[in-house]
Known about the structure:
The protein has 9 helices and 7 strands; from the N terminus they run ββαβααβαβαααβαβα.
Amino acid sequence: xxxxxxxxxxxxxxxxxxxxxxxxxxxxxxxxxxxxxxxxxxxxxxxxxxxxxxxxxxxxxxxxxxxxxxxxxxxxxxxxxxxxxxxxxxxxxxxxxxxxxxxxxxxxxxxxxxxxxxxxxxxxxxxxxxxxxxxxxxxxxxxxxxxxxxxxxxxxxxxxxxxxxxxxxxxxxxxxxxxxxxxxxxxxxxxxxxxxxxxxxxxxxxxxxxxxxxxxxxxxxxxxxxxxxxxxxxxxxxxxxxxxxxxx
Length: 248
């Protein structure tokens, strides 16, 4: 049986808008529960998909970070065009990197990063992550095992040129963290199996925000939004958003 794939969402409920950004090889499903939680507390939330995400992996490897950044900007501008003047951004992993990049370039009410990297693994290790995503996607889609094996064998003969640009993106954003003055909440799981958890301290130390906080989660893994402490995460994000100087 084929299972429906996650879709971008736009939950309109209140004048305060929050842009929710997923990670590399992730989808809106990673931030959907947080979006629904915020909706119940009178926040509008939007979660786009970056190109190549939430679709077959053969499409993912043809995309690159410049396109993903365009998709982030398109979502930000959609919120503005819809009439939302005050926007906070909450990003997971790569989404956290994009959140910082937005904060350096655009006026935001606040920024929350969750397990956001400031250093990147080698492209070989990142490629292994892409292959894992590919296999998981095909299983989730309900493809038969024989077809999955055949398609994975074919995929392993290819590459993803955009991975080099991904490293450059993260390095470039790290250089701009000291240009960020927006209120900031940095969230990091202690047992992150994907990124260097020390990235959280880098973000916290180098941001120029006068209002900033670093929170550690002791029981969660990298996708902290789906982990055992997600209920506490929801409350902490809401608590931060409530401290911001919303004008409405």
